[in-house]
Structure formats: C-alpha cells, structure tokens
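Dear colleague,

As promised, here are the two records you asked about, laid out in our usual form so they can be pasted straight into your sheet.

NAME FIELD: protein one
SEQUENCE, THEN STRUCTURE:
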Amino acid sequence: MESSSLNAPPSDLIGRPEVYPNRSLKRIGTWFIILLLATIFLGASVPKLGELGLFDSGFTRWGYPTWFAKGIGMIEATAAIFLIIPSTALYSAIVLGVVMIGAIVTHLFFGEAIYALIPFTMLLLLTFVAWVRRPERVHTMIRRRKVGIE
C-alpha cells in the first residue's frame, strides 16, 4: 500500500500542465536580446539628443541637416522604450529596422563599409525580435496564460 502512494504524484501537481524548460530558456534569451537592443538604442540616442552635437559633424558630412540627428535620436529613444512592450515590439522593431537600413545605406554610400557592420548586426537582431514578437504569437501567449497552459 505504501509503495503505491510513494509513486503517485503529489496532489498539487495533478492537473498542472507540463513544464517546458526550453521555453523558459528561450524566453530569457529573447528578453536578453530585447533589453540589450533597448539599452543600445537608448544609449545611442542620448548623444544625438544632447546639446553637445556629437553626431552633428557626421550628419553634416553625409549631407543631412543637423536637426536630422535630433530626429533620429527621438525615433531611437521612443522606439527603444516601445521595444520592451510585447504588443508594440513588432512595430518598434520595424521602425528601428528602417533607421538601421538608412544607416547601412549611408555608410556604404560614403565608403564606410566597416561602419555598416554595426547597424547590420542591429538589423539582424531587430528582425529576430520582430519575428518572435509578431502579433499572432503575442496573442497566442496571452491566451495561453489566461487558460493556464503556460
């Protein structure tokens, strides 16, 4: 009689869904990439928004007006904040991806191919975030939480 009670699962585990360890590792990795990107874009926007004009000479050399650096800084800062919110991460990744495509084209056009590697890497990471945070995936995750699957 005692052997059967030792083999039975505890009563608090009955009816509980299976735990998928890969999902939590995937979730941690995804959040790490998202927070890393948000930090990088927020950090890159601060000098563009500051009064020192650290990026003004570069933007002038590339033929852009000086106010353009502040505009890009505002876009980067705003999109970096919205990148953290799962329901807006896709749209934020798209906006930041367009900015990164502009940076890549600018660097390549002016013969600075080595400097295009950084925005290209950011574009790849943003593509990953956009894929993971696409709307149907977000809605599925929300539905699973309400039902109690995850």
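NAME FIELD: protein two
SEQUENCE, THEN STRUCTURE:
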Amino acid sequence: MTSKVYLTIFLCGLATWLIRVVPFMLVKNFKIPPMLMRFLSFVPVAILSAIFVESLLIYHTGHWPSINFGNFLASIPAIITAIISKSLLAVVVVGVIAMALIRFLGLV
C-alpha cells in the first residue's frame, strides 16, 4: 500500500514539474510575437482577480451569492495599499494584519 502512495506522490510531483518547466523550455527556442506577449501579460492579473472575487463571495445553492464581510473588510486596506505602494509583499502583509485585527475584534 505505501509503495502505491509513494509512486502517486512522485508521479504527481513529476506532472507538476513538467507542466511548469516544459512551457519555459519550449518558449526559450521560439520568438513570441509581441501581440501574444501583450495578451499573456494580462494572465496574472486575470488569475489574481478571479481568486480575489471568489474569496469575496459565499456560494449558496440555488440562490445568489452573498458577500463574505470579513474578507471584504480586510480587502479595503489591502486595495488601498496596492494602489499606493504597488508592492505585492506590502499588500499581503496589510491584508493578513487587517484580517487578524478583524478576527481579533470579533467583527466576523
């Protein structure tokens, strides 16, 4: 039983590594058109936006989603920090501190 678990962990790690490394190896040998590079530059923003919005909503089967007020309140200082500093580290630190204060004060 344990050999199957180890094999599964190894194969999952290999698949993850290949998915992340192979595209870099392929792109290294080709010249990417500027239009495609411009398009791809929006991918990180789109992914982070999707994760952000998903964390603000609470899914209810058969009903409209509601807002997670704890995450919403913590996102306000994080967004302000992002606008001012443009530093991902600062945004993460401020967001974590804001959520800790909100939970400490019992606002959620």
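A couple of things worth noting about protein two: Helices lie at 2-28, 34-40, 43-56, 69-85, 88-105. Residues 33-105 form one domain.

Best,
R.
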